[in-house]
Amino acid sequence: MTEASGTRSTTQRQARAIDEMNPDGVPRKVLFVAGAGRSGTSTMAGIASLLGMHVPLPEVPADASNPRGFSEPQWVVDLHDRLLKEAGVQVSDSRPSAWFETGRISTREPARIRVTEWLEPHFDVHPELVVKDPRLSWFLGLWRVAAIRTGATPVFATMLRPPAEVVGSKQKYYANKLGASHLAASWLNMLLHTERATRESAGSGRVFVRYEDLLTDWVKTTMHVGKTLDLQTIIHTRSDQIREVHRFIDPNLRRVTQTLDDLGLPPRLHELTATTWTELNKLAEPDGDTAEVHATLDELRDAYTDLYEEAEAISRSSVVAARIAGAQAAADAPAPATGLADRIPHDVRAKIPPSVRRGVRKALGRERTQG
Fold first, then answer.
1. pLDDT top residue among 214 and 174
2. What are phi and psi of 190, to 5 degrees?
3. Among 199, 276, 329, 358, which residue has the least CB neighbours within 10 Å?
4. Are 211 and 39 in contact (CB under 8 A)?
5. pLDDT for 13 beyond 50
6. CA distance 50 to 240
7. 3-314 — its CATH code?
8. Are 30 and 38 in contact (CB under 8 A)?
9. What is the pLDDT of residues 129-148, one digit of tens each?
10. Which residues contact 40 (CB under 8 A, 6 or more apart)?
């Protein structure tokens, strides 16, 4: 099947789903699939897409790290890459202060207009969209505002996977060299702030989904997502679409299994990670999204911020040493190769007629401007 025919069949399948649901009665919604990378976000978004929801095209192509596809719009990934670069934030950034930097960008009116204008035409394909990207959590405020401006309701599904498995998967498939402690800290930073950023949607506007539950019984888990968030496409899915998802789901997708004890984390980081995982799991239980859990997660977020600031203060000598080493390496690097003309002695160049020198400069694109 060609890419074009594949796109047509997807559009036709979604158009039939709209007809069955009565398009005039289906309100606009955007399902934002959030969470740390390698936590099952692609699986969740892929299921929603196969059941008829629309992932804006073109999608990021599959690769060896995710052979069944990412189910994420290329435009969204490119946008987030640019915004993260502008903010000076990494995808897996462990700094609590990084949220201030991305939040500052999310409040800019040009960014909000741009995202709103991108979202709007995709509702012509289907009233219920799926937007997913591991970078998404950094800009949830931006996307929430944009969705509301299009007349859509933003809803959120945050994926939960044991942090040790997330760390191991990143090390295996992304060749991450920053170490288990950094990756565990970035998981903490990401999940604690993602929970806080979606809290105003607690109740019927957000769900927390265990990756293990999705692989073990995707029908039960996905139907819970659809009913909680009132996603009509999922609630009224068809048997042929369900069969497609059965072929898509592979229990072996969970290819990395390890525990926190395998990571050798510093004791305080280990404790905070383990406790946060326990509390987040409560949110995935029926009626578990409670004020009591929210308060505990706020305390954990404050405790992580304190731990990071302590570590940052203690390690300033390492930062200075790294800067000195970088500057020394730059100073010791060989000088860049000079142009051919610079290698010719001046007295020889002087004997070359001016018209010839001008012709050479023109051919090399080095014409001198008059000023």
1. 214
2. -65, -50
3. 329
4. yes
5. no
6. 10
7. 3.40.50.300
8. no
9. 999 999 999 999 999 999 99
10. 159, 161, 209, 211, 214, 215, 253
The structure's pTM equals: 0.81
From residue 2, give the alpha-carbon distance in Å to each of 46, 72, 110, 369. Answer: 20, 20, 37, 51
- HEC assignment per residue over the chain: CCHHHHHHHHHHHHHHHHHHHCHHHCCCEEEEEECCCCCCHHHHHHHHHHCCCECCCCECCCECCECCCCCCEHHHHHHHHHHHHHHCCCCCCCCCCHHHHHHHHHCCHHHHHHHHHHHHHHHHCCCEEEEECCCHHHHHHHHHHHHHHCCCEEEEEEEECCHHHHHHHHHHHCCCCCCHHHHHHHHHHHHHHHHHHCHHHCCCCEEEEEHHHHHHCHHHHHHHHHHHHCCHHHHCCCHHHHHHHHHHCCHHHCCCCCCHHHCCCCHHHHHHHHHHHHHHHHHCCCCCCCHHHHHHHHHHHHHHHHHHHHHHHHCHHHHHHHHHHHHHHHHHCCCCCCCHHHHCCHHHHHCCCHHHHHHHHHHCCCCCCCC
How far apart CA 55 and CA 30 sit, in angstroms, is: 10
Amino acid of residue 78: D
Determine the Cα–Cα distance for residues 23 and 27; give it in Å rounded to an integer.
8
Amino acid at 53: M
